[in-house]
Amino acid sequence: MNNITYHKATVNDTSILVENRILFAIELSGGQNQETIKTLTKQMTAYFSKATADDSCISIIAKYDGIVAGIGSVHIREMPGNFKNPTGKWGYIMNMYTVPNFRRKGICKGILDLLVEEGKKSGITAFELHATNEGEFVYRQNGFEIHNEPTYRKFTTKQT
Question: What is the pLDDT of residue 44?
Fold first, then answer.
């Protein structure tokens, strides 16, 4: 696929990021009612508008002949540094979504490479992500390793 182009998203790309993130969420969680989708769309629009403008999230959009083929983002958070991550800057890779017709063509790898490259320019010295079974291979192939420290979560809203 020689006609694939990649670009760093701007605030003008917010609707593309939101639309594809919704498709990703539906693919993971199954169909949702319109009210739930509307609420999530509103939240994500606010998030990506702000995060793209203030560079707390870097997103990459892949296009094939002008058609969106995939997206990916890295959310930047800063904490006290440590010996493994001296800058304390973490990049959480998220929203890795390739449109079904474009899967298995290297688009995810291209997006991932650019996210890591852009993240390093921002001072990130550690990256993390959660992977689906389908995505695990590309992450392992690109140097990500399973991390065995337990993660605990507490949700304060009802999960459906």
Answer: 95
